[in-house]
Amino acid sequence: MLDGAVETGSWVPLGVAHSMHGFINLLKPNYETIAEYVDISPTYNPLDGFTTVADVRGPSAYINLVGASPEIKNCSFFIQGDRLIDHSGAVHEADFNAYFSAVFKNGFSINALGPSMSELRSYNGNYYSGYPSYRNGVTVPFNLMGFPIGYGDGTSAPIDVSGNWGSFGGKWLHLYTAQTSRSLGSRYTIGLEYDGSTERTLRGGALDSQWLRRFSIGSNLGQSTNLTLTLRSISGRGGFSTEPGVNFALAFHERMSSGDLYINYGSPSAFATLDRMAIKYVVRVGGEAGT
Predict the structure, then answer these.
(1) Are 232 and 240 spatial neighbours (Cβ–Cβ below 8 Å)?
(2) How many degrees, rounded to 5, is the angle at CA 264 between CA 215 and CA 228?
(3) Which of 253, 186, 245, 179 shows the shortest CA–CA distance to 216?
(4) What would the mean pLDDT of 42-46 be, rounded to a whole number?
(5) Is a pLDDT exceeding 50 seen at residue 291?
(6) pTM, whole model, 2 decimals?
(7) Which of 69, 197, 205, 283 is the most buried (most CB within 10 A)?
(8) Would you give the distance in Å from CA 93 to the centre of its chain?
(9) What are the residue ranges spanned by the domains of the chain?
């Protein structure tokens, strides 16, 4: 398959820019493989689209093997890699990923165990494109090893834990996650989550950390009515959340014959509790929900 896009206009530095992509796919019952080639010109930046990086050309490929055994319900092994250079001849982006996933008959599972390694080059702090000067080139590595384990996934009481470690954003990073949910009788469901990150700068060794704790409880008040309350606490600044804080949120949903009523207090994604309430009623016309 081959596809491409061309951008022209007075706003394009050279008057014309392009993005070309072609691949060959081989699909079999126990494996799939793709070989592809990409070519994006240095000034390609469409007004009505989104491109993560420009000024790259080169090959990429992946293969995914699947299978099973007497002790394993299903398993897969995925390998992917690419090496993309820019018009200065330097490697602009390179990636390698290898993951193993398996679901065992005893209830345990492994979800994408393996390394994820990449590097991205910037010029004068610009990762998108260094054209036309290609000055002050800096290559930043992003390398993480993931070790995720689950038990009871797909049941009413799953448990999932994971650990990730490696260099990321100029720091040595450790990420930890643990979450589970439980049914309490036929009406209530609780969810618990505890996540943490520790990071140490590669230069100087300064240590920082951030920890997240989340508790949620949901209740089926009736066949068509449910209520969910969520309490989340974030402490520390050494992580991906820019602000620590405590946040409470409430969501109510009732399905009626003519539509759906939603009442929400706060926001589950806010840094702190928002003193805000939103009420919405969605009217269904000519069919059930989703039609």
Answers:
(1) no
(2) 35
(3) 179
(4) 90
(5) no
(6) 0.80
(7) 197
(8) 19
(9) 1-157, 170-291
